[in-house]
Design goal:
Mean pLDDT: 96
Low-confidence stretches: none
Helix content: under 10%
CATH superfamily: PEBP-like
Radius of gyration: 15 Å
CATH architecture: Alpha-Beta Complex
Strand order of the largest sheet: 6-4-3-7-8
Number of domains: 1
Largest sheet: 5 strands, antiparallel
Number of helices: 1
Structural class: mainly beta
């Protein structure tokens, strides 16, 4: 079996529960728990030095999609992120892992909150097996992270959740 990602929080293709939806604190009109889902991966290829996790909505009406979560430099010895690891105050990220800036303008998980009445949006939670650690900071943009991942990813696997309001 190749590189694969699963979740105890949702199944691939399912709608995401309210616990994972953006909270009212963000002012976009949603009232969820804003907790990042549990993610677990296996089958990383030889040569993996770190992992990265991204959550991306290609359906956002921005012309360029929307980055909801970016975590890099997860140690190669780690194969799971617990529920709410994306909360910068939770302390649930493994030592050495770094959350970087999302399209919300800050590091950390920001849950789905598509425009009211829009079609269901797809949220791809992708785990990248990376051949090195990335030399980035918490303020590095998701686009720059994506560029670096493009050239440093050995394998990747995604699980997709849906949300509509």
């Amino acid at each position: 079996m190749g590189f694969a990602v699963t979740s105890d929080s949702f199944r691939d293709g399912d709608y995401l529960g309210k616990d994972h939806i953006l909270s009212a604190d963000y002012g976009f009109g949603c009232a969820g728990g804003n907790r990042s889902p549990h993610l677990k991966w296996s089958g990383a290829p030889e040569g993996t030095k770190s992992f990265a996790v991204t959550c991306y909505d290609p359906d956002a009406p921005t012309g360029s999609g929307f980055w909801h979560w970016v975590v890099v430099n997860i140690p190669a010895s780690v194969n799971e992120l617990p529920l709410d690891a994306g909360n910068p105050k939770s302390g649930k990220l493994p030592a050495g892992a770094l959350q970087t800036r999302t399209d919300f303008g800050a590091a950390g998980y920001g849950g789905p909150c598509p425009p009211e009445g829009d079609h269901p949006h797809r949220y791809f939670f992708t785990v990248h097996a990376v051949k090195s650690e990335l030399g980035v900071t918490a303020d590095t943009s998701a686009a720059v992270i994506g560029f670096q991942l493009h050239f440093n990813t050995l394998a990747k696997s995604a699980i997709m959740g849906l949300f509509k309001r």
